[in-house]
Amino acid sequence: MVSDRRTLLADAALDVLADEGIRGLTHRAVDRRAAMPLGTTSAYFRTRAALLTGLVTRLVQLDQAELQTVAEELPPLRTAGELVDGMALLARKRLTGKGRRRSLARYACAAESVRDRELREILVPRENAGREAVRLFLSEHGVTDLDDRTHTLLTCVDGLVFDRLVSGGEVPREALEGLVAAALRQDGGA
């Protein structure tokens, strides 16, 4: 029951952060969003730092599950077009519905992690099915510096998602195609 309540509160905190920003993230605001009595959030997350840590831990869990689902939805990536399709699917998920709300929270937490080492360590990119699919695709296409190219490609896609989150619209397919072409380039530059 305790972990269920902590998860419910972390999910409510994500919603508060998405709607009100980092300044609006308070124990009382989370209590209200979770429809819990005042003081409930502070009973589970005593400090603001503990609340942020719980929120970021939950965010990473949700992101990892999403990446696993996207990887399972796609066929094995054989062509650049299939990789672009996968990245476009992930970008759409991160720009719409609950994915958009998580993206808003993710970027707020990323900015906060600049000053908080514990948050930064939780947010560091992890191994997951999506990252592994990109790495495997690049390997099968002769890319030798797999870790650097995979990281650069995924970071650039993340930047495009951030840009569209702020400015609106979808990530242009041409931009994704250009990123994949750069990742596949054999001249040593990604």
Brief description of this entry?
The longest helix has 26 residues, at 48-73. The protein has helices spanning 2-24, 27-33, 40-44, 48-73, 80-95, 97-113, 117-123, 129-140, 146-167, 173-184. Helix 4 (48-73) packs across helix 8 (129-140), helix 5 (80-95) crosses helix 10 and helix 6 crosses helix 7 (117-123).
Blueprint of the fold:
Elements (H helix, E strand, L loop, with lengths): L1 H23 L2 H7 L6 H5 L3 H26 L6 H16 L1 H17 L3 H7 L5 H12 L5 H22 L5 H12 L6
Helix pairs in contact: 1-2, 1-4, 1-6, 4-6, 4-7, 4-8, 5-6, 5-9, 5-10, 6-7, 8-9, 9-10
Average pLDDT score: 92
Instruction: Please report the number of helical segments.
Output: 10
CATH hierarchy: architecture of the domain at 56-184: Orthogonal Bundle
The separation of the N and C termini measures: 48 Å
Low-confidence stretches: none
What sort of overall outline do the alpha carbons produce when their principal axes are compared?
elongated
Give the C-level CATH assignment of the domain at 56-184: Mainly Alpha
| Structural class designation | mainly alpha
The CATH topology assignment of the domain at 56-184 is: Tetracycline Repressor, domain 2
Give a short account of the largest sheet: none
Encode the helix/strand succession as letters.
Answer: HHHHHHHHHH
Give the DSSP E fraction (strand runs of 2 or more residues).
under 5%
Radius of gyration: 18 Å
Kindly state the number of beta strands.
Answer: 0
Residues in helices, as a percent range: over 70%
Protein name: TetR family transcriptional regulator
Domain HTH tetR-type: 3-63
DNA-binding region: 26-45
InterPro entries: Homeodomain-like_sf, HTH_TetR, Tet_transcr_reg_TetR-rel_C_sf, TetR_C_31
